[in-house]
Each structure stands twice: as C-alpha cells, then as structure tokens.
Design goal:
Layout (H helix, E strand, L loop, with lengths): L6 E2 L15 H13 L5 E3 L11 H15 L5 E4 L7 H11 L5 E5 H4 L6 H14 L5 E4 L11 H10 L2 E6 L4 H11 L5 E4 L5 H7 L3 E2 L8 H14 L3 H17 L5 H10 L16 H20 L7
Parallel strand pairs: 1-8, 2-3, 3-4, 4-5, 5-6, 6-7, 7-8
Helix pairs in contact: 1-2, 6-7, 7-8, 9-10, 10-12
Length: 310
Amino acid sequence: MNLLPKGLWPVMITPFKTNNQIDIDGLERLTNMYLDAGSNGMFTNCLSSEMYQLTTEERLLLTSSVVKFCQDKVPVVATGTFNRGGATNTDFIKKIYDTGINAVILITSMLVEPDESDDVLKSRLEEIMSETGNIPLGVYECPVPYKRLLSTDMLKWMASTGRFVYHKDTSCNSISLERKSAAVKGTNFGLYNADTATALDSLESGARGISPISANYYPEPYSYLLNEFFTNGRTEKLNQLHAILTMMDRVTHTFYPFSAKLFLQNRGLKIETNSRIPTDMLTNLDTIRFNALMDSFKVISEMYDIKSVL
C-alpha cells in the first residue's frame, strides 16, 4: 500500500442547492478552493459532508465528482461503511472504491456496538479485508453514531496487516496521540489528527497531518502551519499562530456545517448555506462571534503574510 502524503486533509463539506440537492458546480468551486489553499489530500463523504443525510447514490456521486475535480493532483479518501457488517458493507466498499479514490474509510462505531469488545471489532475488520481484495483501507473515529476510540494494540495490529493507510484520530489527547503514533511508526499507516488544539503535539509525535473542521472555514493558515512545521519544526512563531487557531476553533463548532458554508460564502465562495442538518437561527451573540472569527482570520493572514485564495 502506498504511503499517503503528509499535510492538510480537509474533511470536505457538501454544497447543496436551495432545493437541497447536491450542487455539483459549487462542489467543483469548493474543491478548487481546497486545492488552491494547499491541501494535500481530500476526505469526502465524511461526517462534515453530511454523509448520513445522503442516499447511497448521492454518496457515490459526491465521491466520484471530487475525484474528477482533483484530477490526480491530490489523493482522495471516502467513507465506505454505513451498516454493522456483512455483505452490505463490502458491496458498497467496492462500489465507492471504483469511483477512483485512494482508500476506503471504515467508521469504527458503525462496525461494533458500544458494549462489544475489540475482538469483535477485529473479527469484523478481518471479514471486510477478506471480502475486499487489496482495496486500501482507513479508519475514522467518527463521533456519530458514537465515538469509538481505537487502542494502540488495535492500531498496531491494523498496521501489521498492510491494508490500512489512513487513520483519522479524534481522541483530542496529546498523550494518546503520541502512543498511537508510536504504534504505527515505520509503517504505511498514517495518523491524521482531527483536533486543532493538539495539532502541533501530534505532529511532533509523528502524525502525518491534520484534518480539523476549522480548515473548512480557512484552510490557508493550516497549510501555512503544516508547511512551516515540516520545514522548520516547532518554532515560537508557530506556537503563537497555533494558539490563535486554537482559540478560533472554539467558535467554528457552532451551527456546523451550516456555519462553515456561511463563512465561505461571506469570504466570496459561490455556494449556498443550505444544509440537510436542521439548524437554529444565529442569535445576535452568535453573529458577533462569527464576525470576530472573520476578523481574526484576516488578522492572522496579515500577521503571517498568508495569502487568501478567495
């Protein structure tokens, strides 16, 4: 299995038209925005993509469209498990891999119940591997339907199979990330951290990249942070940028993913704010916070000479 590149892997949102159908033109503009901002890979058909609100056909359309728009410039991964197990999962894994993606992502909490052991999870993974040939696989500790974090022993076993190339980690814990990175060190099983606050810690521990939802608002400073880290290491200047991004990250989780679409629209990207996830109206206080988020983005762009792609 090929080693996936280091860097920024956005967990892509899905633009919808005003009638809530997938906006393919908007998706192309969004994909180009991620590419122009320096993204090194794309994770589509994920939680940020509203994957649970899409039909099977829409998941395949979304994924194949992203592959087409990326034009082999960066690799693409996408979720392939939406059931507890069996033939339904393996059939869809094959279908979504045929869209041209580089790896199919398995949702840990979709494969086992909360009270089922790692032995059961391992058994389900072995079943999937035996039924999917040599398709490269990844795992995602998706918080929906519940968060199922992986143990270091489980990660070490996955790495030993040679089938796994991507792990999106949501532990949000520097010590856990350090242990997990050590478990897969020297293999093609790359760890990509979902959390902004622990981003630099995880990179120091050996993570290959990051996939924070805030990169759906402003991917440019994240690309800058990663490029600077891989070039010069963890400098005081980088610590300062990371501290600001960590504070900004507290706002981006509100009304998400509607808020990310609104933010990008305000930045000039031609997409609608429609979401299939019910969203309350922003209060006056929420509006003030989102305006402050935009101001903060502009400030750090000027401070660090980060070019905006919109």
